[in-house]
Amino acid sequence: MDNEQLPSTDEAREQLLDALERPDQTNIHALVRDWHPALIADAVEALPREMRHDLWERLDTADRGQVLIEVGRGVRQQLIDEAAHEELLAALGTLEMDELADLDADLPVSVLDTMVRAMDVQRRQRYEAVKQYPDDSAGGLMDADAAAVREDVSLKAVLRYLRQMRKREGKLPEHLDSVMVVDRQNHYLGVLSLADVVSLKSDTLVKAVMHTDVPAITVDTEDTRVARLFEDHDLISAAVVDEDGRLLGRITIDDVVDVMRAEAEGEVLRRAGLEEDTDLFAPVLSNAAKRAVWLGVNLCNAFVAAWVIGLFEASIDQVVALAVLMPVVASMGGVAGNQTLTLVTRAIALDQIGRGNAMQLLFREVASGVLNGAFWAVIVAIIATLWFGSTQLGVVFGCALMLNLLTGATAGTLVPLLLDRLKIDPALAGGVVLTAATDVVGFFSFLGLATLFLL
Q: What would the pLDDT profile of 338-348 be if each residue is shown by its tens digit?
């Protein structure tokens, strides 16, 4: 099937639903046979839980392994729990060692033990080499099977080495755009492009054409930092080294794309207080329990804001317009703060903020808050004056709005910086703290100023 004929995720889901609802279900295998595992995984995640096992039973063994890699953890756990051990072992046998290391935490102990015992010595060594590092590190992402040559050999020898590897393994490593160059102690020196290997004279020495400006990645580097390095240097693959610079393996672009996607999806979910890899069709009870904590935090914020409003109950009774206008003050402060919060959180994720520029960023955002506050304070003051026929109310409304816009800009800058310093994810907790600040300050400033100057 040509790529142009592959269905979209929506189309794939609808086609699968239609096929699974038929009594015979005989055409499912033919339907998904030419689909990429990632497309199958997307369709699986969109299926109701009771239909997923029916689809799993009709997948090829190789597709089963790749689908386990591609689906979210919640869906993966369901597929693993419902699959027979023999099916799991067959599917796992088609995976690379770094992929196996990503799955082993979710596998039954009996399956994991059987899988490791069935490995030959070389595969077991590669698996153990990857397994000792966290999944969210360069070591957890790497493939321990890195093609490496020394700098004092010829390109002819490199070609011979690659042919032997192809014969021994049955295939060359995926995304092999270059060969790592090491010294006799296995220290990383640079890379040799395959384009040079096949296009230059065969008697050319590796050290004459190797590239020494391609950075290696230390094994304990966080996966998000690895993704940033790939993006900054336009890498397809990169060497992974230990603290002494010895070559341990390599990371390829397909692993990095998975990291980028997971990070983007995770940030969206964290902002809503949801866990990463949340199953769309998770059981209702567990789904409700996971959301309850987040709702409780927001309920506390709402009660704090309500308490502040209650302090000025008498003022609101005398000037009804205050009840009409005060949500505007809180809302504008929240929007301004979220603009800054998003900007700063993104900069933190990209390692663009440090001690040297944090204060400059704060001054910049405060200045922006002052300018926006002054502009919109005048606008809302005029609107409130014309609406309620009170110049004093308009001035109070404008001043409160300016104060809250300034609060939003300041909190939007300081909150994510402080949370990051405390090792708390700003994308998860930043919005909650910011909303509490802008609501409380907004209500207090508006109602407080009104009490002082209108009553």
A: 889 888 888 88
